[in-house]
Amino acid sequence: MINQWCESRGIENPETVGYVNEEGATEADRDYFSALLDKMSKSIGEQKAAAKELRLLTKRMPSFRALFGESTEAIPRLLKPLTQRRGSFSSGSNEMTLPDLQEDLITTLLNISIHDSNKKVVAESPMVITILVDALQCGTPETRSNAAAALFTLSALDSNKVLIGKSGALKPLIELLDEGHPMAVKDAASAIFNLCIIKENKTMVVREGAVQVIFKKIKNGVLIDELLAILAMLSTHQRAVEELSDLGAVPCLLSIMRESSCARNRENCIAILYTICVNDRSKLRELREEERVYGTLSQLAQDGTSRAKRKASGILDRLNRAFNHTHTHTA
């Protein structure tokens, strides 16, 4: 009651700041939780106040996150304002009054999804993924970022990776990666990485133009670590490798390998280069020139990670074979 009194008057209750209830929810918590969900069917003012409160409670108190997993009705009740007004965020009379409500509800979904035992029930609740996909495309930068973060969190389960891939989320995630606010770009990259662990999503991501978007970001020095990891994963896909060849990725990757002190980045670069030169022998000339001038491949074959050493040695073997073959032929 003290909390509610403070909340209704816009006063922060000093005794509850940072308070985390590690115990299960009390009977009073359950009643309050149910009352807040009831408000999602009432006036916009009540919806907004309840959404803000649920966002705070699910941020601070694991017991409130757990309550959402106890009933199949809790999440549909939470999202009622969004399911009723779906499509009105980008156009329509509610545009000015709804972005903050959308942001609070999407952030509450993210908070609920962090709870491991909720991941399945959240992703399989009707409309959740659809609403997250909507939120990726419109809303405040924080809404878009938190929608991507929720998809990342949910994609920890393989069954959810499949659901999210089939939902049409990959294209808006790539668009967010391409044009999004800096804080949203990292969340989009994390979600794409997780989703691409399964083969069918990898194929869809390549088809939706991810390779070009990712390579452009890397060239611009944006999120190099995360994006190289995605590119290395995608480089097992034939079409992705062909696109990288066409985009002129070889000099860029060689430059990162020379200049980066990060062992993982160098490993990812050499893994991508290996698949490119296996796929397109004409690229061996660039690699041979690099080796002649800088000795980059030999260096990595000596001091890289075990995977980097293997890939660098594989390229050096190919260079030797190609060069010796040419030499014998011209002799």
Describe this structure in words.
The chain has two domains: 33-84 and 99-206, Leucine-rich Repeat Variant; 209-331, Leucine-rich Repeat Variant (Alpha Horseshoe). It is 74% helix and 0% strand. It has helices at residues 2-8, 27-38, 44-60, 62-69, 74-78, 80-84, 99-114, 119-124, 128-137, 141-154, 158-166, 170-179, 182-195, 199-207, 210-219, 224-234, 238-246, 249-259, 263-279, 284-294, 296-303, 306-330. Helix 13 (182-195) packs parallel to helix 16 (224-234) and helix 15 packs antiparallel against helix 16 (224-234). The chain starts with a helix and ends with a helix.
Brief overview:
The protein has 331 residues and is mainly α. The chain has helices at residues 2-8, 27-38, 44-60, 62-69, 74-78, 80-84, 99-114, 119-124, 128-137, 141-154, 158-166, 170-179, 182-195, 199-207, 210-219, 224-234, 238-246, 249-259, 263-279, 284-294, 296-303, 306-330. Helix 12 runs antiparallel to helix 13.
